[in-house]
Amino acid sequence: MRSVLAVGAHPDDIELGCGGTLAAHRAAGDAVTMLVLTGGQNGPGSVQVRAREQERAADRLGAVLVWGGQVDCAMSADPAVITVIENVLKVVGADVVYTHAPDDSHQDHRATAAATLSAARHRSAVLYYAGPSTVRFEPTVFVDISEHLEAKLAALACHESQVDGSSMVDPEAAAATARHFGALARIRYAEPFVPARFVWDLGTAVVPLPRHGSGRAGSESGESRSDQAQHDESRTALVPGARHQSW
């Protein structure tokens, strides 16, 4: 079982970039944490509304949600932000880290990419995801989300204020994008990634990324449903008030 950390600058960023992959991780029995660095103060919808939407989306993906306590459109890759990400990395013991692609027209996304790469400098699997504001992106790693596209779209739909008020959050475009990259990867639907660093340990029975047909939670590890539940409870205990935690 792996521990996965996805880092996003704003509510909905993670769902757009790697929501299907996180659903695939959970189906494979992995523990998933979403770190949202800001409250999306400058987007459509109030901070309170966006917080509730993000909580519902994390629940939909079966992920633990952590808030980073930063301010929308005022972020930089400074030591304070790097420390926030480092602290979460240490608590969850992340094996795989996903974050924004650095070549992006939004300054918060660029700052998040740089800060995450610094915080995860000792991690062996760090992958960049794309979003609607990404400028240049040439992926070489793909995750098959054919069985998880509905979960991605359902999580994205939780962000009603953005779906209704922002042209950047379009479930139809998200589905079309997954189909496009699926065609490039010779599968039905895919999410694409650019590896900042990716080590594939061929000596282990489990590859670092989920693969189509790998089974449902606990199927390969022999872990029972009760074992998975105990694991999730222990993870929540590691992050006090996890779904509303600020770092």
Structure report:
The protein has one domain: LmbE-like (Rossmann fold). Helices cover 40% and strands 19% of the residues. The chain contains 8 helices and 8 strands, in the order βαβαβαβαββαααβαβ. The chain has helices spanning 13-27, 47-61, 79-92, 107-119, 149-157, 160-165, 171-184, 225-238, and strands at 3-8, 31-38, 64-70, 96-100, 125-129, 141-144, 190-198, 245-246. An 8-stranded mixed β-sheet has the order 6-7-5-4-1-2-3-8, sandwiched between helices. β4 (96-100), α4 (107-119) and β5 (125-129) form a beta-alpha-beta unit. The relative contact order is 0.20.
Which structural traits does this protein have?
eight-stranded mixed β-sheet; 247 residues; alpha/beta; globular; disordered C terminus
Question: What's the SSE blueprint?
Answer:
Elements: E1 3-8, H1 13-27, E2 31-38, H2 47-61, E3 64-70, H3 79-92, E4 96-100, H4 107-119, E5 125-129, E6 141-144, H5 149-157, H6 160-165, H7 171-184, E7 190-198, H8 225-238, E8 245-246
Parallel strand pairs: 1-2, 1-4, 2-3, 3-8, 4-5
Antiparallel strand pairs: 5-7, 6-7
How can the largest sheet be summarized?
A: 8 strands, mixed
CATH topology: Rossmann fold
Tell me the name of the CATH homologous superfamily.
LmbE-like
In terms of DSSP E residues, the strand content is 15-25%
- State mean pLDDT (0 to 100 scale): 87
The CATH architecture term is 3-Layer(aba) Sandwich
Number of strands: 8
Distance between the termini: 25 Å
* Unreliable parts: 211-231, 233-247
Radius of gyration: 16 Å
Cross-sheet strand order for the largest sheet: 6-7-5-4-1-2-3-8
Measured as a percent range, the helix fraction is: 40-55%
Number of domains: 1
According to CATH, what is the class?
Answer: Alpha Beta
